[in-house]
Amino acid sequence: MGLQPLEFSDCYLDSPWFRERIRAHEAELEKTNKFIKELLKDGKNLIAATKSLSVAQRKFAHSLRDFKFEFIGDAETDDERCIDASLREFSNFLRNLEEQREIMALSVTETLIKPLEKFRKEKLGAVKEEKKKFDKETEKNYSLLDKHLNLSAKKKDAHLQEADIQVEQNRKHFYELSLEYVCKLQEIQERKKFEFVEPMLSFFQGMFTFYHQGHELAKDFNHYKMELQINIQNTRNRFEGTRSEVEDLMNKIRQNPKEHKRASQFAVEGYLYVQEKRPAPFGSSWVKHYCMYRKAAKKFTMIPFEHRSGGKIGDGEVFSLKECTKRHTDSIDRRFCFDVEAADRPGIPLTMQAFSEEERKLWMEALGGKEALLPSLNRANLRREGGAQLDKIGFTILRKCIRAVETRGINDQGLYRVVGVSSKVQRLLSVLMDAKTCNEVDLENSLDWEVKTITSALKQYLRSLPEPLMTYDLHGEFIIPAKCGSPESRVNAIHFLVHRLPEKNKEMLDILVKHLTNVSNHAKQNLMTVANLGVVFGPTLMRPQEETVAAIMDLKFQNIVVEILIENHEKIFRTMPDATLPEPVSMSTSPPNAPPRQSKRQGQRNKRPVAVYNLCLELEDADNPSPPKEDTPTGSLDSLSSHSPTPAILSSSPGPEKNHLLTDGGDLVDWASNHPSQARPPMVQWLNPQSPTSLSANTAAVPSSPTSPSFSFSPSAAVADKPTECIVSRKARAVYPCEAEHSSELSFEIGAVFEDVQTSREPGWLEGTLNGKRGLIPQNYVKLL
Fold first, then answer.
1. Which of 574, 591, 615 corresponds to the end of one domain?
2. Where is the Rho-GAP domain (predicted)?
3. What is the pLDDT of residues 120-146, one digit of tens each?
């Protein structure tokens, strides 16, 4: 049962039950006051906790934004770039969410805390003041009444009448105050229902608004989330393929490391202990050096390096080798030793110690020692022999398998990913590769061979070719467009390269890719999307001549090349490429759907082995300013190349004495240590130290051979309009959106029109005016009008 109403007529009776009802109302108001007080305290704690959560969320978002993934190799796939950018997207999402949370926290103060505090202080406080007055008047009234009733009847009438009037006036004042107090008590009991609940409603409305904003942010984020899931899945699929290849290579090298040594510009290299002689009291010491020897130039380089002292590279030494002599154990109390003598220090040999007798023989062989071994066969560079050939039987195998797959299993889930039994695959392949039995095999109608056996046999045939279908020679050139440039420039470059393939290779590739296009068209049934087919056929159609970890890291780009072939089959195989070379591509790491921007601040990414080669060549240059001419065999190169994601813009002048490449930071780095199988860096022009390090965008490419043109690096890929001369007072339209990274740059959306566009001093950039503001514009983001 609720509180009993307070009747105004009871104020005049002032009965005990009336007083009980008043006390019940007062107790209820006191309970309400304490509740609001506690609620305000909890509300302030909630705001403080919300602010603490917001600070923690913002710190988390800041950490996400600042972290960047490093990648292995010289470029990333579009999927990997999206994954890299995802942390910034997550950070932006949290930042936007926290902005809404701050608005909610502010609204809690304004809509809940302040109104409740005002109600408690003004309304409940006013009732408390009325209670004090009522209690005071009650005390006064009944005290005066007691005193009046104690007056003696013998007092004078005038005195008694005056006392009666005073008591009556006091009782009237008391009744009026009692009426007002009772009215206040009942009013506040009714008022608290809306005065208290209305701020609560506003508070929850603010919370609903916050959650609604979060829901809207999540809806906006959903499209990006779905795309990111696809990027992650594609990257995971490529990772699985790359991991198996890396493990295979690791096992091969583990079984026979000598047969898988990488080609190098040095005849021999490795660690040796060098004897350093000291004055007589101190004897001699042996210091570990990393030594390298160039046979053609007879240059011996040794650099002190101790793994246990933090791995710091010491000051190196380069000298011309005169002779090498084996040391016997009767002349020195150490094994595996030999002496080398420098041409400029005759009669002062250096004593060196190898790690084993076998390594000493290898060093002496390379250095021209007396006990050199006969040259060993480098099996790693031999071509893999196989029975499969690009002949009439090969084309028959391909067509038979494709017809059978399209007739019997085009909708089979996991087509080409589900592997057949190895023994059955080998048996089918042997039957198909036999000229006597090839035509007798009916794969379309016979149930003797499962579809997964046929698909595995087809892949095995392509892997068994003496060289991959897309050839060793063009492998590097196919990879480069997949690493950079706009989608259109990639297609154009691969279109051009496909038509440089030998005729039989191109014909077989055409047949296969047409079939894979058909397979991808049934992806809803067989689940073999273009990306999945790229994972399966990337390593099958392309592989480097030399198996290295660096080459395996390019496996994901092989998959992208195959994806481009499938998605653009009609254009690539049914039309001829342009007579001119496709637009140059650059090794940039721009986000997908936008061409790379020429960065004005490239970070250094040098690795220790590169530093070793740099030091070696710098020391050698200092020792011999005019290096001798030497015939560099294929697979060895005295040259340097950039490890920066964006290569240098190079001069087309004739090559200098040293084949150097210059990075944006001005550093010389080594090409041959990372691309030993190439006689010169592909698609790169040689740097002339006397020429400027920037070119106009229309610089022609330098062909690597009369019949094998190569592309030149440029600060931009897929430039919408390449000028043939200096640009002055032109108009341009944006073909890609751009967000400025510096105050000197302009931000713009697609379709923005720039006035008074002209060539900038910054390579790859233009100057222009947009909406009255002048600044730099990435040249590859606009089209000249």
1. 574
2. 388-573
3. 888 888 888 888 888 888 888 888 888
